[in-house]
């Protein structure tokens, strides 16, 4: 099996060692399933709580300790209930890897309802879209439940359904590299002197080597000296890892258990493999979860944007048509002046245009109307066009405001953490854009749903800073929570968060730090030199009937900053 990802069998080997050292003999204290394909078991070991993420996400499948916060669904899933029934309070006896495959067994012991001891296996299979988390009865080998049910229509080789016998994934006829090199290693190296070809050959001989691992192995084997010793040394490093994040010259990131050769790349290290994965996946997994959980919101906002942009184009075309209004007035006035020269029954007439040096102007007529009625018809068309201009300009203003509003919401969804979607959903419901879906039946409790709290940060000098992550939070923060003397910040002319410095006379450094937060939590996150306006809260004003998050202001000053994620993390940690 070819791996293109970094979480290959060898990385799994290192992770199993790390988890085993920290967690063995720990007790399961909490079980949650925050996302469809992901379970978090909190294990209490050595007076410390370790949240273990078992992810069967098709793109980001993995096992690790995670410190990334998550939000639980209001109702636990069936799989969560089964896990709680069997594993709540269970002791983790051992963590093992199947050969050098990406299959990890967590062996638990617990007491059943009768008080008898029972052995249980929680198995995670890290296999891209076939990834799964399966609970198995240790004595009988029967599946108690799986996070994804796989029937015979999907897989003839093995069923992954409650009650079925658990069968291991098909075994590969390859050598486990941690058992040492094959006797023909020196011959392989001699037969395939090209490093790339050697890497491909090794990948078909040894189990669980991803592309990056096998490329690093081929480089190591090409060094002068004993080739078998190089092989053993390379795999021994997985037992004493130096977790490494590599950023390529093109900005692509990858993670490895220790530094692999990478020309022109920058490398950062982490204290543990789990911390490394949190750094690597934080944004990627968050984006993915937001896309999954916010799919309905994204669809609604996209539709509203499309509808309003189409309307905007139509209105602009109508406005262009009404620019002929003056022409109708002129023709009406000329006809009125020269009525005596116009005969009934004519379809057109040429008359001197006194607005243009009396040059002849051809005017179309209706042969069914009298000369006076034809003139009145032009005046009516003029009046209609003039009225249309007023109406169209009003509609243009409203429609442009709608486009800006939904652009702003789309930017908020793009920057949101999963927990921030709750308020955005509520706002769209309150605005009548989101019909109640089955899982959001109207109830008194729902209608009285509280707006969540803004994110809190602390400037280097200890000043408190709040950041609203969506329109409802922004309104609450800027118009109700903040004092009139606090300082309000927002990126100039683009969607972004409202930021409040809770002080009336903050230092220049604090203003720059808060401006950095405003730029980071805005559409300008990837830009450099982002303009940020700031002013006292008392200069803010919300027009009557304005949409959530919309304010107008005067007397602002502007600073320019380049958003830095490291600074944002530092201010959050403060």
From TrEMBL:
Start and end residues of each NFACT RNA-binding domain: 456-553
Pfam family, one: NFACT_N
Keywords: Coiled coil, Protein biosynthesis, RNA-binding, rRNA-binding, tRNA-binding
Keyword check for Acetylation: no
GO biological process: rescue of stalled ribosome
Role: Key component of the ribosome quality control system (RQC), a ribosome-associated complex that mediates the extraction of incompletely synthesized nascent chains from stalled ribosomes and their subsequent degradation. RqcH recruits Ala-charged tRNA, and with RqcP directs the elongation of stalled nascent chains on 50S ribosomal subunits, leading to non-templated C-terminal alanine extensions (Ala tail). The Ala tail promotes nascent chain degradation. May add between 1 and at least 8 Ala residues. Binds to stalled 50S ribosomal subunits.
Region (Disordered), start-end ranges: 439-465
Basic residues composition-biased segments: 440-451
Subunit structure: Associates with stalled 50S ribosomal subunits. Binds to RqcP.
Coiled-coil boundaries: 298-325
Similarity annotation: Belongs to the NEMF family.
Organism whose genome encodes this protein: Levilactobacillus paucivorans
A GO molecular function held by the record: ribosomal large subunit binding
Name of the protein: Rqc2 homolog RqcH
GO cellular component terms, semicolon-separated: RQC complex
